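Suppose you are handed only these lines of text.
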Amino acid sequence: MDSAILLQEAIKARANAYIPYSRFAVGAALLDREGHIHHGCNVENAAFGPTNCAERTALFRAIADGHKAGSFKAIAVIADTDAPVSPCGVCRQVMIELCPPDMKVILGNMKGDIFETTVRELLPGAFGPVDLAQGQATE
Ligand SMILES: O=c1ccn([C@H]2C[C@H](O)[C@@H](CO)O2)c(=O)[nH]1
Ligand SMILES: [Zn+2]
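From them, the structure of the protein bound to 2'-deoxyuridine can be written out as follows.
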């Protein structure tokens, strides 16, 4: 699928952002292997910590709908930033967990700038499921 089309879907998702505190709206569109798209927006909270980013909303709703970790094809993320939006560290860690490392991540802004990267490039040296398995005590 064309990056521009997935970004258009992210713009639609962004319209639903719940952002009473930051007023910073973010949208995400996650492509699955059947070619379906899952929308995500940021959902904020008065206690701040429970806030969920757009990227994680899209990933968690797709997992909850039965799509398997590692089966996703691409994600587009958009905000009204000067440069294409930069995913936070928590979302980078969640993408490492749930997406193929070489999966395309399309970052955009409302001016039409686009930066394409991958899950692995966004979190080099990441701690992941393999590291956890290697360090687990046997009893
Ligand atoms: O890539 C990003 C960066 C920030 N946010 C959200 C979290 C919070 O609601 C607001 C300000 O950080 O933007 C996202 O959803 N995705
Ligand atoms: Zn995030």
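What can we learn from it? The chain has a mean pLDDT of 97. The beta strands are 26-31, 37-41, 74-79, 104-109, 114-118.
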